């Protein structure tokens, strides 16, 4: 049983003023793994004060100094590869497969930030004026549980590249993962106060970050509902916000696609991170006349997506993070049944032999229409809705008929055709004939999937404020 009873403020592990504890429960066995002591409003204010003081000097550091700090963090993280993967599988139930990819992305975020510092010009000429891109101030980073350290690394590395200091609030469910990254960050020897991490609840620590006038910007990843609460509070002090929110991503398979490749890829896109991914391709759009072929391929493919112990390298779908999340997914499967959709695979209840953990049966619904709740709402579990279309135009219409717009997928054997369809989809990223990540290309959502973008130049500029110096001649 582990007890995490320290938070990190001004370069030191400190005991929080908050005295409440939160139990850390294994998603795989539902046994108690440990507990975390939660920070309170005062702890959050102390962290913000430390970041504010550090900003005075950190904002003036040179690119070379920032590159050095980023390299130091990267090398500390590199030393603990197995620990990062193990703790993610143990605490969160992320599969070994997903945790390994997530770890690689963590490392790449430092490379991308260094790359930006080597290529971006912080001083530009626009019109006849000099425009200085200046660090925005103290950034509040609020993140969910589904790739906790991945989010810390990508957001913190961008903040450092921009010359900003930070207060980070991870999910209280990720305390052991947070402890590990903290040990690496501490070892990297950054100036005191550049990063501060407060474990705590959203309504307490997150709310103070959203309210406090000394926070200049919030970078939030999480649900659309909480994103709205944060944005409403942030406007009182005109904080800048970057919001990475939910999704209901369409996956259009065109009639000329190689279905034997596209369907396994589509299942992978739907069930990635055990379905607990904002970018999961949860609406599979297929030509009506291919339904039988698709049904057969899905039936053939599903057994390859092994459900079980996340530590097993062959497992593709692990447990849901919590019992609450398990129940939410069950409720949605029941909703799909009530709405008249037909279960092709999976369904209610736990898979045999996995009754102790929060495991769900990867579920595929057919006969779904796009107005059903299972096609409109984010489920955040391995549940895929198959929707048929008659024409290309209808496919695009269904794809765009959603309040979300984070990611989309298109498969076709004709890359020009796929490119043409992709260009008509209202989503921040469209994946063509595969699933990839370009850390220098923007990531973020249209519509209620968010505000702003992360990664690359556009992501960096969200941490900068332009100052134009105008000298009339
Ligand atoms: P959540 O919105 O419930 O919580 C996210 C974070 O916000 C947590 O740290 C939480 O403590 C905090 N929070 C909660 N209430 C708050 C409040 N009133 N004020 C300030 N902070 C508060 O999300 P979750 O359940 O942890 O994660 C799942 C959600 O995250 C899904 O909707 C998913 O789509 C989304 N997500 C989005 C992306 C993306 O990049 N677009 C990536 C991953 C997850």
From TrEMBL:
Q: Which InterPro entries match?
A: Ald_DH/histidinol_DH, Ald_DH_C, Ald_DH_CS_CYS, Ald_DH_CS_GLU, Ald_DH_N, Aldehyde_DH_dom
- Which SUPFAM superfamilies does UniProt cross-reference here? ALDH-like (SSF53720)
EC top class, in one word? oxidoreductase
- A Pfam entry, by short name: Aldedh
Q: Which reaction does it catalyse?
A: an aldehyde + NAD(+) + H2O = a carboxylate + NADH + 2 H(+)
Aldehyde dehydrogenase domain residues are: 14-467
- Specify whether Ubl conjugation is a keyword of the entry: no
Which residues catalyse the reaction? Answer: 244
Under which EC number(s) is this enzyme classified? 1.2.1.3
Keyword line: Oxidoreductase
The GO terms this record gives for MF are: aldehyde dehydrogenase (NAD+) activity
Instruction: Kindly indicate where the leader peptide sits in this chain.
Output: none
Return the PANTHER family for the record: ALDEHYDE DEHYDROGENASE, ALDEHYDE DEHYDROGENASE-RELATED
What family does this chain come from, according to its entry? Belongs to the aldehyde dehydrogenase family.
Q: What is this protein called?
A: aldehyde dehydrogenase (NAD(+))
* Organism for this UniProt entry: Flavobacterium anhuiense
Q: What is the lineage of its organism?
A: Bacteria, Pseudomonadati, Bacteroidota, Flavobacteriia, Flavobacteriales
């Amino acid at each position: 049983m582990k007890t995490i009873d320290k938070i990190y403020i001004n370069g030191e592990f400190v005991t929080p003023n908050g005295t409440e504890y939160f139990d850390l429960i294994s998603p795989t066995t539902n046994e108690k793994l440990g507990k975390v002591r939660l920070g309170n409003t005062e702890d959050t204010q102390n962290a913000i004060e430390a970041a504010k003081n550090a900003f005075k000097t950190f904002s003036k550091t040179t690119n070379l100094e920032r590159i050095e700090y980023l390299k130091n963090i990267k090398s500390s993280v590199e030393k603990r590869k197995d620990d990062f993967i193990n703790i993610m599988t143990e605490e969160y139930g992320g599969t070994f497969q997903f945790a390994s990819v997530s770890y690689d992305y963590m490392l790449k975020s430092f490379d991308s930030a260094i790359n930006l510092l080597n290529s971006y010009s912080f001083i530009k000429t626009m019109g006849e004026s000099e425009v200085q891109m200046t660090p925005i101030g103290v950034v509040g980073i609020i993140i969910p549980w589904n790739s906790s350290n991945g989010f810390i690394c990508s957001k913190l590395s961008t903040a450092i590249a921009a010359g900003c200091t930070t207060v980070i609030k991870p999910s209280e469910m990720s305390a052991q993962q947070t402890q590990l990254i903290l040990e690496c960050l501490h070892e990297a020897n950054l100036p005191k106060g550049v990063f501060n991490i407060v474990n705590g609840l959203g309504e307490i620590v997150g709310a103070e970050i959203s309210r406090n006038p000394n926070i200049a910007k919030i970078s939030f990843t999480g649900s659309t509902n909480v994103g709205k609460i944060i944005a409403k509070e942030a406007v009182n002090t005109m904080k800048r916000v970057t919001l990475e929110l939910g999704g209901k991503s369409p996956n259009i398979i065109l009639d000329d696609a190689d279905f034997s490749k596209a369907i396994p890829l589509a299942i992978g896109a739907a069930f990635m991170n055990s379905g607990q991914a904002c970018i999961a391709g949860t609406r599979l759009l297929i030509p009506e006349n291919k339904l039988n072929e698709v049904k057969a391929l899905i039936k053939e493919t599903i057994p390859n997506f092994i459900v079980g112990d996340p530590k097993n390298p062959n497992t593709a779908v692990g447990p849901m993070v919590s019992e609450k999340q398990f129940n939410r997914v069950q409720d949605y499967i029941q909703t799909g049944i009530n709405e008249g959709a037909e279960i092709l695979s999976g369904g209610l209840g736990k898979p045999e032999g996995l009754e102790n953990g929060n495991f769900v049966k990867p579920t595929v619904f057919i006969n779904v229409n796009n107005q059903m709740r299972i096609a409109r709402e984010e489920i955040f579990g391995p549940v895929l809705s198959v929707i048929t279309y008659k024409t290309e135009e209808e496919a695009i219409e269904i794809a765009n008929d959603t309040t979300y717009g984070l990611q989309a997928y298109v498969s076709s054997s004709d890359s020009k055709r796929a490119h043409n369809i992709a260009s008509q989809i209202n989503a921040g990223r469209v994946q063509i004939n595969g699933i990839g990540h370009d850390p220098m290309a923007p990531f973020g959502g249209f519509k209620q999937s968010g505000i702003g973008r992360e990664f690359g130049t556009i992501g960096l500029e969200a941490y900068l404020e332009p100052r134009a110096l105008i000298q009339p001649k």
